[in-house]
Amino acid sequence: MNRIRVLPLLPVGALALAGCGSKQDTLTPHGPAAKSVASLWWWLLGGAVVGLGTITALLILAWARRGSMGEGRQPGERAGWIVVVTLGIGVMVAGLAALFVVADIFVIRDTEAPAAGKTALTVRAVGHQWFWEFDYPGTSAVTADEMHIPARTPVLLVAKTADVIHSFWVPELNRKIDTIPGQRNAIELYADKPGRYRGSCSQYCGLQHAHMSMYLFADPPARYRAWLAAQSRPARPPTTALARRGERVFLQGACASCHTIRGTPAHGYVGPDLTHLASRTSLAGLTIPNRKDSLARWIVDSQHIKPGNQMPDLNLTGPQLQSLLAYLETLR
Amino acid sequence: MATLELPAEQRVDRLERMWQPRPGILGWLTTTDHKRVGLLYFWTTLGLFGAGGVEALLMRTQLIHANNDVLTPGQYDQVFTMHGITMIFFFIIPMTTGAFGNYLIPLMIGARDMAFPRMNALSYWIFLASGIFLYVGFATGNGPNAAWFGFPPLSSRPFDPNRSIEFYTLALIFNGISSSLASANFIVTMFKMRAPGMSFNRLPTFCYAFLAASFGLLFALPALSADCIFLYLDRMVGTHFFDVARGGSVLLWQHLFWFFGHPEVYILIVPAFGIATAIIPAFTQRKLVAYPLVAVAELLVVFIGFGVWAHHMFVVGLPTITIVFFAAATAMVVIPSSIQVFAWCMSMLTGMPRFKTPLLFIAGFIFMFVNGGLTGIMFVAVPFDQQVHDTYFVIAHFHYIIFGAAVFPIFGGMYYWFPKVTGKLYFEKPGQISFWIIFVGTNLLFFPMYVVGLLGMPRQVYTYPGNMGWTAYNLAETMGAYLTALGIAVLFANLVVSYFRGPPSGPDPWLGPTLEWATSSPPPEYNFPVIPTVSSAYANWDDDDRELDARKLAEGVMVLEQGHEHPVSTTVDGLFSEVVELPHSSAWPLILTVCLSVVFVMLVIGKFGVAGIFAVLCLLSLLGWHSREPQEA
Fold first, then answer.
1. What is the CA angle B508-B510-B516, rounded to 5?
2. Residue A92, φ and ψ in degrees, nearest 5
3. Which of A51, A84, A92 sits opposite B343 (nearest CB)?
4. Residues B172-212 pLDDT 10s
5. Which of residues 29-88 of B touch A (CB under 8 A)?
6. Confidence (pTM)
7. Considering only residues 536 to 565 of chain B, which have any Cβ-Cβ distance to chain A shorter than 8 Å?
8. Tens digit of each residue's pLDDT (9 = 90 or more) over B471-492
9. What is the interface pTM, i.e. ipTM, of the complex?
10. Which residues contact A237 (CB under 8 A, 6 or more apart)?
């Protein structure tokens, strides 16, 4: 057995993807819903600073009176009552009522599931332990961990799950939404400008909840249409002899029992659809970049990179691995 | 009565004999003395606090920098789940209700014991057994690992095939039995065992808080227990409560869990409010501002707390109208808390504050509680809640509440009542140092969590990438965690040294307002040589009443030295109604607990036959419980 040995690869590959769109910051919104929430936050912060400032001031005033001598055991009871009733009840009720009206009657409209017909396009996100599957109803396009939408276009995101509860969250565009078994939840996605936005599963979903992130690419509409058309096509048959050997390794080995490659007999549903694997920038829920070396390490030793993931040790020989890699590279 | 002509010393001698505990370890194993039960609770919860604290430090060590590998993902999942369960169910609830409540409530209401002393012992032994049960699971690699909220389907058999969730469901049910028994006991004790004269409007606010927590537990726990039974049946018997494919619902779990889980938050902090309302009058030498409002607010916060559970579920896809209703309820629950915060502040501001260690902890508690409370108010704003839900922002919020608003008063209370329990004074300087280390440490630990939450860091991740802008904050948090641990070490070192070297405190070093300060330190087994006279909510400040007690002792009025005699009062007005005999020490609570423990262990491994046999033994030991006990002459 000429089994390839590779050094363990720490899941630092995402470093290579640093730069634009590597953050998931709620305070740098790039869509109308996230913008509403962010400005709501700044108001909330202002209110909280006033509240905490008031109480801290009272505590400091009390500190300044330390050791003072008073008369009797109920001095200033009337003043105390007045403060408790006016600030503790009156001002609080008014503040809470204002907050409720602004946030839960007006701002909530920006984050609600969109009304039917409001969106131009639907994307379905299906949470799996531990990757995201995206499909585009009306086409045969299926991808994993990286979704594309047209920029400046309202998109309906339908959140589903294949197993446990996950939560779809791309904070720079909108709030999160859980994927509940047996339920169809939805939010609207709208990106103000083309770019790459990062998201994470934000409901604890088991061992590799930490490695269940995704990229959302907002493309200019023309590029989006081209991308979707390419993704909808089945895989092209391999042309080189090496890649054809790789295809046989894929179809005859364990790969095909878990993965789908459209246009071949591989129809597994445990792992992600690999039809256009080579068009993706990252692997395994953004754990590692999609480069030949890291893909090789993933195939050989995925349990070290992402312990507990569903990919078994395939016991490939060196030549088998090389041909498999050559084949996977053709899946553009 | 024939004893009328006895002099006072002989009456007290007789009381001593009547209430004498069995010597040595046997005395502790069979004790029904609320003070001993309270101390047992204290030491046990302290041990579990240590375990939960080590778990916290392990998590913070794992997260000190990106892509760290101190813990494997599987270990991390168990550790954070155990941390949550331990701190909530096995530290704060038993520390407040079990330790503080048991030790102090009978003393504060002028009683000699709890209404059901044996049931009280039983609640402790069951609590101890449930703690051991949970940690046996952890030690055998079956620690619960589906987060403290255990959502199915992640916690269902296909996704969690070993015994982890059996230990989870059964430990919570087991622990719930203990809490329910304790709660019922507290309610009856506060309703019926108050010294004659202590009408409900003279009940210390500390007791109101524990009354609210007890009612909360009693009504909230059944939802949790039912939920755990459903999950246990799904996993072990094959029912389909949470199996969507067979018509079950995974949201059923969440509704029941949070129907328990949100009142639970108030159950955690309301006793701490009670501790604050006990400490503030003592260190300001002033009655609490707006006592009636505070007492009502303590009850109201738990009551409204039952109507807000779905604010934990704003992202599961509930209809907007439902969400808005629960947001409104969440806004309402703020009011009783804000009433109390302003009442505490105004009490300090208008009184004569002496910032000794206990009051420092209370001032720190107010700051932390308002901090966490204000971010809690932010969750009224549904869109903001939906954005930061399940991020570190929420972790920061509820740790400001749970550590800041529950643990700070617990620490303050430890200092405040240390002289009462030990008869020694603690050392003030190290006490203040421990406060400042803990105050700085916890803020360094929890405040950056708000920021990383806003920067998008999800909770319950065992690691994180290095390029997200989270690393520096996580490093600060870990430093804060170790600083907090240092402060807690200073606190306990101070208390241990004070126990051995501290100067004697006398019965009432703080001029405390409530009745526990009217008796010696530590209190005798029978608490008070004469059932105290009460004519206000600050009974120990009524000097005339205390003089009256001395005269009553001399005359033999309300000494009740013929056995474990205890006066029973009318529920509302606190008028004397009759004298009852309280049971003596007993081994039956411990025997019953041992049988019950076997039942639970057998349920883990699915041996229903053996479990049934031991359930019958439990019933038999209940029969033994009621057998007659020897009456001393």
1. 45
2. -65, -45
3. A84
4. 999 999 999 999 999 999 999 999 999 999 999 999 999 99
5. 66-67, 72-74, 77
6. 0.94
7. 538, 541
8. 999 999 999 999 999 999 999 9
9. 0.93
10. A247, A263
